[in-house]
């Protein structure tokens, strides 16, 4: 069994859910994120958050995967002050909804003054609500941004054991672990981290407080990043216990602190019943025959599309 604790499923297709279930992924965590272009009204942000706590949770369940999410104002849009102020008014209401396991992904992009202001405000919200935090570390000037993120978190007074510093690499991992935080790694082709590099890090650091995710989104990414990394690690001699920790148990431990994510959610799941509706809507289109009580069909390897 695997958990993918960072997957932007709202950007993915039904095929991804089917392939993930077939590969052994039992649960995903969907962080609120940058959708590729700026949102200009707080209403569009509210609709987006409503989708990831509602429809997407339902859609995943129709393919046998349990879906959780994190809510937050991403760092890019923190630079639109009017939008940011509106989102901050809504966040406490979403943070208390069923299936929300953390505040995130939040942090720095260009490390501006506005990003810093709203990063701090959201850390205070997480502290008040006693929720874990998922931190996005910047793509540019990563080392300085990662160190700065942890400095601010410590200044706010959050327990590092409640915080996942995500998108680590070889340059940042030692400091993240030494300061007591969880170290997330996104297996994202050509940019954040490849899985052969990840295997070498597992050989060096072991599995304590390390978490593997795919960060799959609308970019060139792989929704099977977690199971593929697990398989490569096992074939490369990484102990099975280490693989289980980084691809399953560690994510459950830290995000389970929200009280919203429990192993029994997927060990004793409700049956798949694709006749079910969400707000009057179905995942079935055009009179398609529903799947009931069995594993969702796997269509990815089929040659014929009917």
Structure described in brief:
By secondary structure, this protein is of the alpha/beta class. The protein is 40% helix and 13% strand.
Structure description:
The chain is of the alpha/beta class and 306 residues long. The protein contains eleven helices and eight strands. It has helices spanning 14-22, 42-53, 55-61, 81-95, 113-129, 142-156, 173-178, 195-205, 225-235, 240-255, 264-267; strands at 2-4, 25-31, 66-71, 100-107, 133-136, 163-166, 182-186, 210-213. An eight-stranded parallel sheet has the order 1-2-3-4-5-6-7-8. It is globular. The mean pLDDT is 93. Belongs to the metallo-dependent hydrolases superfamily. This is Tat-linked quality control protein TatD. Keywords: Hydrolase, Metal-binding.
